[in-house]
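Something for you to look into today, if you have time. Just paste the record in under my message, thanks.
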Amino acid sequence: MNSIKMEPFNIIGISVRTTNENGKAVKDIAGLWGKWMSENMAEAIPNKVDGTIYSLYTDYEADHTKPYTAILGCKVTSLNYVPEGMVGRTFDGGEYVKLLAKGNLMEDLIVNKWTEIWAMDLNRAFTVDFEVFGEKAQNPADAEVDFLIAIK
């Protein structure tokens, strides 16, 4: 577990308002990924920094037990043009804890890591948390995904 400083960044992607109650987020976020993949959303994003996919969690009503917004997208150099049906947001950056999940994405790797994170004593800020799906996440059966958790 590393503490790092994140620089501000812009993102364009698709979003859903959800909650972890009654497994709703698992369904909603899976639906977001389904749309992302089936409609090749990454290709429609202008001014991409690279091909890395970010899954962000923001606009928390309180903590992880209350509603929040999930955004699936890519970092961009500019928010001058946001395609219809997508959202563009700027995030301030800040202090983060970086964690790693390794394994099979199809075997609840992400959900299991979040369950572990929720049990940790991290002094979370609940501003913007995110997962990074870079080159090491390209093989779903043997993926490495970084988790960045905002801390106070």
